Amino acid sequence: VSIFSQDNMTSLTQTRLLQLLQQEPPEGSAEAALCNKRFRDWSIKPSTQASYSTPVRWYRLVATFPVTGPKLETYIRLLTSAGTLKSSTIRSYISAVRTFAVNDGQAPLPPEEEARVTRALSAADHMVPNKNPPKRAPL
């Protein structure tokens, strides 16, 4: 019989959890919220976090956190009007901002706002080509 039987492991885990609980900040405190946010940060690879910097920085140029549907619609409209990004890039920027917001502790958008953001992304798809224009032969 192994020294690390299931019962023994359960007992060790329970003991360790109780030890860790003693070190935890008070539930609901700002410190506990910060600990949880830092833990959530591990859900996103560093390379992905780095790729979010531009979309989030540009979002902050035109809107503030917390993210709302109307703010995202404005951001989508402005990115589309700039005419420099493919619609797939605009979609990835919106995804980055949403992920950043949820990871920061913000609740998801209500369904009615979500529906309008989806329509705004569809408008961007129709207004912005997703492919680079064909190259012209030199004159």
What's the arrangement of secondary structure elements?
Layout: H1 6-23, H2 30-41, H3 46-51, H4 53-62, H5 69-82, H6 87-103, H7 111-127
Outline:
Keywords: DNA-binding. The chain is mainly alpha-helical and 139 residues long.
Written account of the structure:
By secondary structure, the protein is mostly helical. Helices cover 68% and strands 0% of the residues. It contains seven helices and no strands. The chain is elongated and about 80 Å long. The N and C termini lie far apart (83 Å). The relative contact order is 0.11. The mean pLDDT is 88. Keywords: DNA-binding. InterPro entries: Integrase_recombinase_N (IPR010998). One of its GO terms (molecular function) is DNA binding.
Radius of gyration: 22 Å
How much of the residues is beta strand, in percent? under 5%
How confident overall, as mean pLDDT?
A: 88
The structural class is mainly alpha
Low-confidence stretches: none
Helix percent band: 55-70%
Number of helices: 7
Number of strands: 0
How far apart lie the N and C ends?
83 Å
Q: What characteristics describe this protein?
A:
mainly alpha; DNA binding; 139 residues
